[in-house]
Amino acid sequence: MAKNFDVIVIGGGPGGYIAAIRAAQLGFNTACVDEWKGPKGGPAPGGTCTNVGCIPSKALLQSSENFEEAGKHFGDHGIQIGGLSIDVARMLGRKDTVVKQNNDGILYLFKKNKVSFFHGRGSFVKAGAEGYEIKVAGAAEETLSARQVIVATGSNARALPGAPFDEANILSNDGALRIPQVPRTLGVIGSGVIGLEMGSVWRRLGADVTILEGLPTFLGAVDEQIAKEAHKLFTKQGLKIELGVKVGEVKNNGAQGVSIAYTGAKGEALNLQVDKLIVSIGRVPNTIGLNPEAVGLKLDERGAIVVDDECRTNLPGVWAIGDVVRGPMLAHKAEEEGVAVAERIAGQHGHVNFNTIPWVIYTSPEIAWVGQTEQQLKAAGRKYRAGTFPFMANGRARALGDTSGMVKFLADEATDEILGVHMVGPMASELISEAVVAMEFKASSEDIARICHAHPSLSEATKEAALAVDKRTLNF
Ligand code: FAD
Ligand code: NAI
């Protein structure tokens, strides 16, 4: 006999667990099924983001940044440290504790909101009178049913053909977050978000890092001016970034590390020998074990579940959200879709504004943006005005000792509506929120320029960049 629910969510990542909580808040009898196992085999909800993504990567970025600060910059403050060293096991242990706090937090939230949690793999069995039947294969087998199902099964790392992940030498994001000792040399394939974040972590701790990128331009999706500045800063920090390469044979030589044959940008045959290799060339939607065929759930050629603008699949009552569908693979995008779908099931007007989803790359300095880039506006023939302000001219940045980068505003030439805001600099991940709010409210750059910002604060750089649109910066 199947246990009947109003809503079943398959997947407990940021998309799934947030959808389940919102559905329960709206009064639905809700189940969430997630198969992720913690180190002792127990449930570890939170998905990629909590277990091998956003949270552990930010924990290691913080640890490695503290280490680099202590070694390179504490002296400027008159703080002397002798015999500085890094205990990698302890750093990884701290990261694991942070992850577990988040896993436990989600289990607590499920209890608080009366979401029934099932630990195991959920798969479609059939569509019947009670709605969809879902089998949960875990420590015990159970059958659930519901008329509304939200699929939030996430994504997996894409491997290079012929070079499978062994997580010892050839590492996905999973292995990249638990290298037991600082490698002497580290190769990274792909200078995207993971490549730059994880490359930065291990470089700061002492690895000699080479990043091989297939495209001829660095961070092609980022505003060109910001990407150029970031490239300059990362290169100065010691990340070796080779653009426009073609990766050939990758050999896993066990204790001897990994060798990568590749063609350089000028067509020259090259070889890179490294202790460890991170492959970060994008992620693929995950429907492994979901058994979509049983109910005729439609996937596209990339394996993503096909959905409309409102996350409806081809089946009535079946929705899909997050990394397993189209759109940016970001935790906050998955969460917004989860909330919107739960509200649509309740007959409300769920809303996700894809034009105001912020992006952040948590390097040092951080890169953050929302809206359109200058190259996109040019390509669309849109008339705009641009304003930039460097952190060098910001008092708080000088006091922090971190003056790299800038804030850039792009506003419509006629109406002054903000079309995009781009930053590379300290705490850009926090500063970008102001721009998101402004764009959500369709503010003009003049609106931001006329708002009082605390002094001294990094946010004054945002105000000054808005003033720069009208060529009237006060501090530069
Ligand atoms: P996931 O988080 O992948 O969760 C899916 C869950 O479903 C998993 O727990 C999985 O085990 C489970 N599952 C799958 N199939 C089944 C099944 N059949 N039955 C039961 N359970 C199943 N995004 C950001 O916004 N900010 C960041 O800083 C950031 N950092 C990242 C760093 C790294 C290294 C990586 C890899 C990703 C990062 N991301 C970041 C991306 C972010 O992790 C994803 O966009 C987000 O996790 C997607 O959420 P989701 O709920 O769609 O899927
Ligand atoms: P990505 O899409 O960000 O970058 C992949 C890079 O690899 C691209 O620059 C691409 O040109 C390059 N590439 C692809 N194939 C290649 C090949 N054969 N040889 C050389 N280069 C190649 O993907 P990444 O870094 O794997 O991250 C996956 C996703 O996870 C991101 O797109 C993002 O959505 C999410 N993420 C988000 C983070 C954040 O929000 N801070 C942090 C980490 C991941």
TrEMBL record:
Q: Name which cysteines form disulfide bonds.
A: 49-54
Which species expresses this protein natively?
Ramlibacter tataouinensis (strain ATCC BAA-407 / DSM 14655 / LMG 21543 / TTB310)
Kindly give the Pfam families that the UniProt entry links to this protein.
Pyr_redox_2, Pyr_redox_dim
Its GO CC terms are:
cytoplasm
What enzyme category does the UniProt record give? oxidoreductase
Reactions listed under catalytic activity: N(6)-[(R)-dihydrolipoyl]-L-lysyl-[protein] + NAD(+) = N(6)-[(R)-lipoyl]-L-lysyl-[protein] + NADH + H(+)
Indicate whether Magnesium appears among the record's keywords.
Answer: no
As recorded in UniProt, its EC number(s) are 1.8.1.4
One MF annotation (Gene Ontology) recorded for this entry? flavin adenine dinucleotide binding
Q: What positions does the domain Pyridine nucleotide-disulphide oxidoreductase dimerisation occupy?
A: 357-466
Miscellaneous: The active site is a redox-active disulfide bond.
Keyword match Flavoprotein: yes
The residues listed in the UniProt record as binding NAD(+), with positions renumbered to this chain, are: 190-197, 213, 282
Localization recorded for this chain is:
Cytoplasm
- The protein's name is Dihydrolipoyl dehydrogenase
GO terms, biological process: 2-oxoglutarate metabolic process
Q: Which UniProt keywords apply?
A: Cytoplasm, FAD, Flavoprotein, NAD, Nucleotide-binding, Oxidoreductase, Redox-active center
List of residues binding FAD: 58, 122, 153-155, 323, 329-332
Every FAD/NAD(P)-binding domain range: 5-338
Where are the active-site residues found?
455
The UniProt family comment states: Belongs to the class-I pyridine nucleotide-disulfide oxidoreductase family.
Q: What cofactor is needed? A: FAD
Cofactor remark: Binds 1 FAD per subunit.
Q: What is its main location?
A: cytoplasm
